[in-house]
Amino acid sequence: MDAARQAEAPCFGQAAVNWLGRHVRFDHCVIFGYRGSTRPPALYETFSPAESHIFVTLYQAGPYLLDPFHHAAVERKEGFWRMRELAPDRFYTSEYYRSYYSQTKLAEEVGFFVPLADKEALVLSLMRLRSSGPFGTADTRLLRDMAPAVISLCRLRWPQLPSIRSTHEKAKGGAVQRSDEFERADIWKSLSLTSREKQVVDLVLQGYSTESAARMMRVAPGTVKVHRRNIYRKLGIKSQAGLFARFAEIVGLRPG
Predict the structure, then answer these.
(1) Same fold, 3-165 and 184-251
(2) DSSP per residue over the chain, as a string?
(3) Confidence (pTM)
(4) pLDDT at res. 163
(5) Radius of gyration, alpha carbons of the chain
């Protein structure tokens, strides 16, 4: 994507916010681009600097790997979706939610999911803070009806995502620095976990219960429990909080 098209992003984003805001009330909007497990670029945001630190900077540091919206985008879902429709059964009591997502102080997040070419995707998220309350039934029905138009406009504006180089490299002192990119399968490589144990870790951190993780893996719940005990023993931890702490350590996440 050339520099001229990148410069148009704020104009498109603001126009989209103005148009959607005439129909439904929301507090924030952000557009992230997703490309597998690589760090997602923020294509547009309405946050203050302090809010951006939580919603964008901290998110890009690693929590995006556990985000239901990220997973849905990578799985190439399309249309309008509410967080509650995509989140695992224990998402709202997970350590990820307590340690990171709760900092956003959101009552609800909804999104327009837009698959692009070459396994890329973007998500235009609308957010309402706890002080505003969640989106109402009439709001979500209207947004769902508007989804085809929003998706078409996003595809016209972003037929492809900006290159990783243009969004993840910054010049500093005349040198170019590249941000690390995480591959989910490689996060636990140094910890001697089996492929099954890595899968359990990923599901547990996302907020899947033992039973739902077992269904995802097509094994018995008891097998997941055994894997979980072995993981905790290998990592020298005793709880999901300890597991998230190790995840945060590995990806270099520093709480705000």
Answers:
(1) no
(2) --HHHHHTHHHHHHHHHHHHHTTS--SEEEEEEEETTSPPPEEEE---HHHHIIIIIIHHTTGGGG-HHHHHHHTT--EEEEHHHHS-TTGGGSHHHHHTGGGG-EEEEEEEEEE-STTEEEEEEEEEETTT-PPPHHHHHHHHHHHHHHHHHHHHH-SSPPPHHHHHEEEETTEEEE-----GGGTTGGGT--HHHHHHHHHHHHT--HHHHHHHHTS-HHHHHHHHHHHHHHHT--SHHHHHHHHHHHHT----
(3) 0.87
(4) 74
(5) 19
pLDDT, residue 113, reads 98
CATH number given to 184-251: 1.10.10.10
Q: Given 3.30.360.10, 3.40.50.2000, 3.30.450.80, 3.40.50.2300, which CATH number is that of 3-165?
A: 3.30.450.80
Domain coordinates of the chain in residue numbers?
Answer: 3-165, 184-251
Identify whether the C-beta of residue 205 lies closer than 8 Å to the C-beta of residue 247: yes
> What does the pLDDT look like over 109-165, one tens digit per residue?
999 999 999 999 999 999 999 999 999 999 999 999 999 999 999 999 999 998 754
Where the chain has pLDDT below 70, the residues are 1-9, 164-186, 190, 253-256
Q: What is the pLDDT of residue 8?
A: 63
Give the pLDDT of residue 173.
Answer: 40
Q: What's the angle, vertex CA 181, arms to CA 178 and CA 182, rounded to 5?
A: 160
